[in-house]
Amino acid sequence: MKVRISEFGWKAGFRLCRKRPDLWKITSKRGQSGAKTKFLGSVLPNGSDLWKHNLLACLLTVLAVNLVSCGEKEEKKISPLGITEEEYAETAYDLDQIQEAGELIAVTLSGPDTYYEYKGKGFGLQFELAEHFAVSIGAKLRMEAVRDTAELFQRLKKGEADLIALEIPENHMTDMELQFSGVRSCLSDSTAAAKTGWVVRKDAPFLAEALDGWYKPETRSFLQKREQLRLSPGGSVKRRVRAPFQNRAKGIISPYDTHFIRHSQAIGWDWRLMAAQCYQESGFDPEAVSWAGARGLMQIMPETAVHLGLPADQMHQPEKNISAAARYLRELERKFSDIPGRAERINFILAAYNGGTGHVRDAMALARKHGKNPHLWNDVAPFILRLSQPQYYNDPVVRYGYLRGEETYGYVTSIRERWQRYRAAVHGGTTGAAPAPSRKNSRGGFKSKVLSAEELEAALKEIITETGATSGKDMGKVMGVASKKLAGLAEGRAISAKVKELLG
């Protein structure tokens, strides 16, 4: 007879101990005379050494599901509870079992807006919400960050988690075994899913009911404001995850603005775009390390670092990391040189930075096959999302297979939205120059700085690039953006004349 400890065996022992907390938890009943504990048909005396018996019992449970005869064909594995491995994976915890065990297991993704650790404590909006709910049902929260959305659903369906504490777009979740419950929100972006929410199993109806009864929009709003306060410049969390702005009034986005300015100039990018991407990647944490091994401010993978000539011992140095990321962005721009217009090309570059060039090209091929323009992001983005569906990633035109498309799509969308906020608050795109100090006027207000001819030309070139304008027929589109963006900074006639000159 051979003893083999399999992954299933360990899980079975763990799940049994969780299902029967009386086997391993030391309670006040332990000291009562005559009390007894049942385990697998045996009766153990309940005394001062009960914990030893219970520990031994749990270990025996693990071993019991792993006894395999030497040289014989392995039969279907049966747990001590009479459940097959396949069935065991489908066992769910409902509210009463969670309360009995005293532990709520939630899974999410790591990030500044979801879940992170600071000084050994959990933070993040999704963590705060999950902890708040756990307290409401009399349980302690165990939050676990996983690699991707695919693992979120996998863990939940296997019964290894009780809920997904991440606001999943409703139009991205089609699994009939799962349902939305609890935290809900609406996105302002009309191109994204209108509604998002937490996810639980359908065979946990009482947990779902408790979540729906507990959640109120004002709960999310309150905790969100508290989290924002923590991340503010004067807040309590300063090291691991920094605020989206270090100092909005002074036009400072992060401690690394000078690096973004220097290295973005080398590749012709808006430094505020690199800053927005950096916040999405690491929350401005130079020590950040992802589950996959990506490191530093711009989350560069070790193999990519080797390719870019970035030594392993320099991956957490801010300027070195940003410099390497800039070189990589320049490479990606060359790879997507067939995309006309810098503004449009940026979407593809960002998507490739997150999901890989091959997957983006697959989405472009699908767009072409379905009669869409493969060089327009709005036509390609839906196929980025569909690359997580078998009927699409198994299509003959697809070479690189499955992609967690919702993450790549969300990555691009989030960066562009944050970039817009940075551009509205901080002047100086490609040059990175902060606005000059303004002077008070006679009414106690401030006069806006008037752009020089060189500054006006640089600003208009940036707008032309952003709008994708290529000729005089696009003048109206450019003027519409420029008149709003440069209001008070230049006269309308000067703007019009310069736009006409630049567009030929």
The CATH topology of the largest domain is given as: Lysozyme
What is the β-strand count?
Answer: 11
* Strand line-up in the sheet with most strands: 8-5-9-11-10
Q: Please, how many domains?
A: 4
Low-confidence segments: 1-11, 23-48, 67-89, 187-193, 236-241, 430-449
Query: How much of the polypeptide forms β-strand, as a percent range?
Result: 5-15%
Structural class: alpha+beta
CATH class of the largest domain: Mainly Alpha
Taking all Cα atoms into account, the compactness measure Rg is: 28 Å
Notes on the protein architecture:
The chain is of the alpha+beta class and 504 residues long. The chain folds into four domains: 2-88, no CATH class; 95-228, D-Maltodextrin-Binding Protein, domain 2, CATH 3.40.190; 257-421, Orthogonal Bundle (Lysozyme); 450-504, Arc Repressor Mutant, subunit A. Helix content is 46%, strand content 11%. It has 20 helices and eleven strands. The protein has helices at residues 7-19, 50-64, 85-88, 95-101, 125-136, 149-157, 205-214, 217-231, 257-267, 271-282, 302-308, 318-335, 342-355, 357-369, 377-386, 390-393, 405-425, 453-467, 475-485, 492-503; strands at 2-3, 36-39, 42-45, 67-68, 103-109, 116-118, 121-123, 140-146, 163-169, 178-186, 195-201. A five-stranded mixed sheet has the order 8-5-9-11-10, with helices on both faces. A two-stranded antiparallel ribbon has the order 1-4. A hairpin with a 2-residue loop joins strand 2 (36-39) and strand 3. Helix 1 packs across helix 2 and helix 18 crosses helix 20 (492-503). It is globular, with a radius of gyration of 28 Å. The relative contact order is 0.06.
